[in-house]
TrEMBL record:
<dbReference type="GO" id="GO:0070513">
    <property type="term" value="F:death domain binding"/>
</dbReference>
<dbReference type="InterPro" id="IPR037939">
    <property type="entry name" value="CRADD"/>
</dbReference>
<keyword id="KW-0863">Zinc-finger</keyword>
<dbReference type="Pfam" id="PF00619">
    <property type="entry name" value="CARD"/>
</dbReference>
<dbReference type="InterPro" id="IPR001315">
    <property type="entry name" value="CARD"/>
</dbReference>
<dbReference type="InterPro" id="IPR011029">
    <property type="entry name" value="DEATH-like_dom_sf"/>
</dbReference>
<dbReference type="GO" id="GO:0042981">
    <property type="term" value="P:regulation of apoptotic process"/>
</dbReference>
<dbReference type="InterPro" id="IPR007527">
    <property type="entry name" value="Znf_SWIM"/>
</dbReference>
<feature type="domain" description="CARD">
    <location>
        <begin position="206"/>
        <end position="296"/>
    </location>
</feature>
<dbReference type="GO" id="GO:0008270">
    <property type="term" value="F:zinc ion binding"/>
</dbReference>
<keyword id="KW-0862">Zinc</keyword>
<keyword id="KW-0479">Metal-binding</keyword>
<feature type="domain" description="SWIM-type">
    <location>
        <begin position="142"/>
        <end position="188"/>
    </location>
</feature>
<dbReference type="GO" id="GO:0002020">
    <property type="term" value="F:protease binding"/>
</dbReference>
<protein>
    <recommendedName>
        <fullName>CARD domain-containing protein</fullName>
    </recommendedName>
</protein>
Length: 303
């Protein structure tokens, strides 16, 4: 049952727990129990709004988090509830991660109780990308087709309603918040999660060496590259591709046309795009293609 995330053991504890049997609670009650109102810093909410969200999906993410972080202790035990949980991000217990679920949305928030000014950008970026990568892995593991939109909400708002889409925040420098009845600077809502704009990648581009490798090996990849959409999904998680670009590639007619479109875009997506592409190949059962590309780096000629 551990294999299928039905049972999980908290590190250092002898007993097993069953996520599906967690008691219910409200986010206001949990925040009061933990004292989040006294926190020195609260990030905005990072939300993933799914077209369809199986109830068991939250349990899979919960078990994954329990394998990486320790649940926060409260008077009644651990802050683990049905559709709501809190984790300590390090041994100091000053930084905590909240994860909550509604009918179609999973939302994350990080709070800090530290009195010292601390930059949470790297922490938020890591949590966001690791969570999105885990979702891709779960989709691959269970063979399910799930799609979601990245949304963001003010730190002290109800996270599951009237969230702003990433596209809306990037297109408009300010957006009206009905909860506060005022306009917010868009960057203050999404920037805590270190969402990178891919527009800047166009100016830098990929290194000439790596761009030449992709061009030289394009025929080999057209014949041997598979799971193109999953590759694009990993690249989107790493902020190499946007949702719009991934959607454009996905709707190309056939695997080879999708590959051709991806290869035409990658050279303009920054220095990290080649490295992330190689990583995505290895994860998506394209290790033979990744190995073929890596061999080209040490070959003679223009490289």
């Amino acid at each position: 049952m551990k294999k299928f995330d039905i049972l999980v053991q908290i590190e250092g504890e002898n007993a097993y727990i069953m996520p599906s049997m967690f008691p219910p609670s409200s986010i206001s009650t949990v925040c009061m129990d933990i004292g989040i109102v006294k926190a020195n810093c609260k990030t905005s909410w990072f939300c993933m709004k799914f077209k369809f969200l199986p109830p068991s999906f939250f349990s899979h993410l919960l078990v994954w988090l329990m394998n990486n972080y320790r649940p926060t202790r409260v008077k009644s035990g651990f802050a683990l509830y049905r559709g709501l949980c809190v984790f300590d991000l390090d041994s100091s217990r000053c930084e905590k991660l909240l994860m909550t679920m509604s009918i179609d949305t999973i939302a994350l928030q990080i709070v800090s109780f530290s009195k010292q000014t601390q930059d949470l950008l790297e922490v938020c970026s890591g949590v966001r990308k690791d969570t999105r990568r885990k979702i891709v892995n779960l989709k691959k593991r269970y063979g399910i087709d799930l799609s979601y939109e990245q949304m963001f909400k003010c730190s002290d708002c109800t996270c599951h309603t009237e969230a702003f889409s990433l596209k809306q925040l990037i297109e408009n420098t300010r957006n009206y918040c009905s909860h506060h009845q005022e306009a917010h600077e868009s960057a203050t809502i999404y920037s805590p999660w270190k969402v990178e704009s891919t527009e800047g990648h166009i100016e830098k581009g990929m290194s000439k060496k790596h761009s030449q490798i992709l061009q030289t090996c394009s025929e080999h990849m057209l014949e041997n590259l598979y799971n193109v959409d999953m590759i694009c999904e990993y690249l989107e998680v790493d902020d190499i591709l946007t949702e719009e670009i991934r959607d454009t590639i996905k709707h190309k007619n056939g695997r080879q046309e999708q590959t051709k479109e991806l290869l035409s875009i990658l050279p303009f997506k920054g220095e990290k795009s080649y490295e992330r592409f190689i990583e995505a190949l290895k994860i998506t059962e394209n290790k033979n293609v990744a190995h073929y590309l890596e061999q080209q780096v040490g070959s003679t000629g223009t490289f």
